[in-house]
Predict the structure.
Amino acid sequence: MILYEPIMIPSGMKDSLGRPSGSLLYIALAVLISAFTAAVLLLPYDTVYIQEETYLLWFLVVMSVCFAVFLLGMTANALLWMRGKGLAGTPEARLLLLVSRAVRTVFSRRLPGLLRTFLKEAMYTSKLRTLSRSRWLAHLLILGGFAAMLVLDVVVTICLDVFHWSPMIDSDGWAKLLMRDLAFDIAGLMMLVGLCMAIVRRLVLRPRQLATELADVASLSFLLIIVVGGFVLEGMGIDGAIPGHESENAYSFVGLAFSYVTPDSAGQYYDEAWLLHGVLSALFVAYIPFSKLFHMIAAPITITLEGLATREAGRR
């Protein structure tokens, strides 16, 4: 399989080199989880507009635990990839080699080519487009919206809680309006449309070649609840004039639409709704490695590595 060609340990490598790799791998995981938990708990969160600080603490604890579960689940799946007959060394050694090569690639001249392959083959899924336009569009909207929301969440969190950047904090700041309001709504709407298309295709149209299992319905439903819940929460914030939602609501155009059907008294339950949405989002992250949603991460990585291996083989 092409995926293993650029990452497998050479057959002549001594097995003794792979023996301590298991401990090294799990030490690295423990350090990563600890660093993430410390960063999450130590951020000031001055711009999280909820009155109950206990709710924020509960969310941070749940998110830290769910991140650990996600990372361990992803590692377990990756170790399954690293198993195979005729491959030298332990699965942990091959995984560490893959990670080290990936890090070196990020800081090398090969990065532009890798990014082009990733965007074209993994995100745009050009091959899927030739097979089914509707399936391709649904996949593009879901994956693109998810990736955009992930990037936005990281950028916004850094701007708010690390640099305290006023254009991102001020209620009328251009960055707040364009990124926290408009960009998030566009990304969420992309996911919502893509999820609706996928659900209709699986439950209504039901193509003969498409087998729909309970796991498929559960994954799509879980993600749909989170996306819709985010817009409901935004509507409650607008309706209740919660800080961060009280001005220029036209930029939050989807949340504004939800606010029109939100009861006037819903704003007083904003803290509880915020905690519920946050916990569900964290649980979704922990659920990914153990569900069919795992392909959202596995497929782009696999496609990118295979594309890179193919390009390298063609140059030889």
Remarks:
- The two ends are 18 Å apart (CA to CA).
